[in-house]
Amino acid sequence: MLESQRERVPLNDGGEMDTAVAFLSFARSCVLKKVAGLDDEQLRRRLVVSDTTLLGLVQHLTDAERYWFGYTLAGDRRHADVDFDMVVAPDRSADQVIAAYRTAIAESDGHIRAAGGLDARTVQPVNDGPVTLRWVLAHMTSETVRHAGHADILRELVDGVTGR
After folding, report:
1. Which terminus in the chain has less CB density within 10 A, N or C?
2. Distance separating alpha carbons of residues 161 and 1, to the nearest angstrom
3. Which residues of the chain are modeled with pLDDT < 70?
4. Distance from C-alpha of 154 to C-alpha of 35, rounded to nearest angstrom
């Protein structure tokens, strides 16, 4: 099947931070592309045994952005108790969920810029102590890419659209 959403991987190679942020941004863009153009029913459609839906993935990734960059990196207590749930409440519109993800991305990018470099340490510990922004970026990139892959499969099941 032809890839109808093909996007070139970033070619940024201007330094470790530039490359890391470019690949995280690429993964986020792939997730947003997978939900573009679908209606509420398609975004909430459950196509696998688990509660995973396209909209649920976006909600989950919003929580991850807020937890890892907002709470863990920057110490924003508002995001200390996110639940990472994939089930979207029926009273939350798809537009609200997607807008929240875009907002969380912008906030995360602000925390990344404010951190002062890849060796900056998190305010909140991970396991036994702080980790670097480098680690948080790697973790969030892998988490986002993992769920972008899930979104690829779900989108193809919804309407046949493929590609990264």
Report:
1. N
2. 9
3. 1-6, 164
4. 10
CB count in 10 Å sphere of residue 87: 15
3-state secondary structure of 65: helix
Q: Which helix (H) or strand (E) holds 131?
A: none
Angle, CA of 96, 60 and 37, to the nearest 5° = 50
53: CB partners within 8 A, 6+ apart: 43, 44, 45, 46, 47, 86, 88, 154
The values of phi and psi at residue 135, to 5°, are -65, -45
Q: Which residues pair with 126 in a beta bridge?
A: 129
What is residue 1's predicted lDDT score, i.e. its pLDDT?
46
* pLDDT tens digits along 113-135: 999 999 999 999 999 999 999 99
Tokens for 59, please give them. 């909600």
The alpha carbon of residue 71 and the mean position of all alpha carbons in its chain are separated, in whole angstroms, by 15
pLDDT of residue 11: 81
∠ Cα 94 97 101 (to 5°): 135
